[in-house]
Design goal:
heterodimer, A: mainly alpha, 4 helices, 2 strands, 71% helix, B: alpha+beta, two-stranded antiparallel sheet
């Protein structure tokens, strides 16, 4: 893996952000190992995004170097549409199910994480397909 | 169906011409302002670049767009 020397501000700022997140998780949950693991995972995610080749890396902007090209824009737009539609349908289904049940069984707050997961999974599928 | 009859498909010689020019996918991507994954997708025929990107790739590889991209009859 090639380390971009010019992008050291990106690595350092994301390491700081990941460490901060890890610290927040560790202090709020009391589980230090969980803070360390999640902090490392978040930092690995930042490094992966820089090196996965899906984005144009603009080293003229070392703090925010990732740019989308035409293909990445098209993938983002399609994934956004699909995730909004899926989240909307899920919200409608949960609304109907909760109306039918005696007491609301499924929290509608599940719709947001579902939409986020669908966005990332569908982006990855589109990226593999073309 | 094209007006000339038969189904047509876009073929490209980007990989061959890039390799002949001694460029890696990453170097070509940086030169034409596309991502490495986009160059991979173009070479595999999974993604058709915009006219602007096609012209830029042709310019960087010092060939014509027709040498890079060709219409071929599928049948």
């Amino acid at each position: 893996m090639k380390i971009y020397a010019k992008l050291m501000p990106y690595y350092l700022s994301r390491a700081l952000l990941a460490a901060l997140l890890g610290w927040l998780i560790a202090t709020s949950s009391g589980l230090v190992w969980m803070g360390i693991v999640l902090g490392l995972l978040v930092f690995a995610g930042f490094v992966y995004y820089l090196h996965n080749g899906r984005y144009i890396v603009d080293d003229g902007h070392p703090f925010f170097p990732l740019r989308r090209d035409d293909r990445a824009e098209s993938i983002r737009n399609k994934a956004l549409v699909v995730s909004v539609v899926v989240a909307g349908l899920a919200y409608f289904a949960i609304f109907i199910l909760n109306r039918m049940a005696a007491s609301p069984a499924i929290p509608s707050s599940l719709v947001l994480p579902l939409g986020v997961v669908v966005y990332f999974v569908y982006s990855m599928v589109l990226d593999k397909k073309g | 169906m094209s007006p000339y009859g038969g189904k047509q498909k876009l073929k490209n010689s980007v990989k061959e011409i890039r390799e002949a020019a001694g460029l890696t996918q990453e170097e070509l991507a940086a030169a034409v302002n596309l991502s490495r994954q986009s160059i991979i997708a173009i070479e595999k025929g999974r993604f058709t670049p915009s006219v602007l990107s096609a012209l830029t790739i042709a310019e960087v590889l010092n060939v014509s767009v027709e040498e890079l991209f060709q219409l071929k009859n599928e049948d």
